[in-house]
Design goal:
- This protein is mainly alpha-helical.
- Helices cover 58% and strands 0% of the residues.
- It is globular.
Length: 66
Amino acid sequence: MASFSKISGQTDQETSAQRLHGAPSYDKWRRDDLYHLAAQKGIQNRANMSNKELVEALKRTQSTGG
C-alpha cells in the first residue's frame, strides 16, 4: 500500500526534511488554506498577500515558534 506522502506527491526528501525541521511544505497549498492558517497564526495584512507572500509569512512564524 502506498504511503500518504507518496500519494500526495511529496518526495522522500521533502518528508525527511519535514520530520527534521517540523515545518510543513506550504508551497503546494491552495490560497484558501494558506489564508485560513495565516488567520489562525495572526498574520497581519494577509488579505493583500500573494500565495508566495503567505508561504513566506507562514514559514517565518514557524521558525519563530509562532
